[in-house]
Design brief:
Blueprint lengths: L14 E5 L16 E2 L2 E2 H9 L6 E4 L14 E2 L9 H15 L5 E6 L9 H12 L3 E6 L2 E10 L3 H9 L6 H8 L1 E6 L13 H11 L4
Parallel strand pairs: 1-4, 1-6, 4-5, 7-9
Antiparallel strand pairs: 2-3, 6-8, 7-8
């Protein structure tokens, strides 16, 4: 079946996954999502913005899942060997959707360290895929592509597993374009909605925009 014919975006609710595999090595270590932000955490802000747009919402993370018990979210580890990057987290969510949420046709993924996600992220990704007649859509802001902020058809799970395990796929953007990808541009005014926290200066900027001084 050609990629463009697989799982075109519909109006059915999309499952959401927060990819929490990154470690804050340049920020003292640990889970990035647990960094303090405006009286809570970065992960709290991601959940607050993302949860109303998806149903259900899960978390992809490896290691001791108990550390995320306070979120109340199902925690799904990578189903393949460690070190395979974000595509492994997406695969985990796609396979979880197929097993536990069979009505879900699409998945939307976001990173754990982007606390200013747009309130219209999911409908805009869905609309872009429909209009371009592509199976996937991802976000762009300020001329920069954000491949992990994306809409994925659950029907692509087997293809993704094969490409990860048998063919060594690692580049998210390359794999997406091979399937068929629409790109949605989001404004960076007044703040980049996909500002992600990779260094101390990113965390300082996020705290300024969040109005907190934690």
């Amino acid at each position: 079946m050609p990629p463009a014919e697989m799982g075109r975006a519909s109006d059915a609710p999309a499952l959401g996954v927060i990819l929490a595999g990154g470690e804050a090595r340049r920020l003292g270590g640990g889970d990035k999502g647990r960094l303090a932000l405006a009286g809570g955490s970065v992960l709290d802000a991601v959940i607050r913005r993302f949860a109303p747009q998806v149903d259900p919402l899960i978390l992809n993370a490896n290691g001791d899942v108990a550390r995320f018990a306070d979120t109340g979210l199902p925690v799904v580890p990578d189903p393949v060997a460690a070190g395979m990057g974000p595509l492994a987290g997406v695969l985990a969510a796609l396979e979880w959707a197929r097993a536990y949420c069979p009505a879900a046709e699409h998945l939307v993924s976001v990173p754990t360290d982007a606390p200013f996600l747009p309130a219209d992220l999911v409908p805009r990704l869905r609309d872009a895929a429909q209009q371009a007649d592509t199976p996937l859509a991802c976000a762009e802001s300020g001329g920069r592509l954000h491949p992990v902020v994306a809409l994925w058809p659950v029907a692509l799970a087997d293809r993704l597993r094969a490409d990860l395990v048998q063919h060594g796929a690692r580049r998210v953007d390359r794999w997406q374009r091979d399937q068929g990808l629409a790109v949605v541009s989001f404004s960076t005014d007044p703040v980049d909605p996909f500002l992600n926290i990779n260094a101390p200066e990113d965390l300082a900027a996020a705290r300024r925009w969040a109005g907190g001084d934690t």
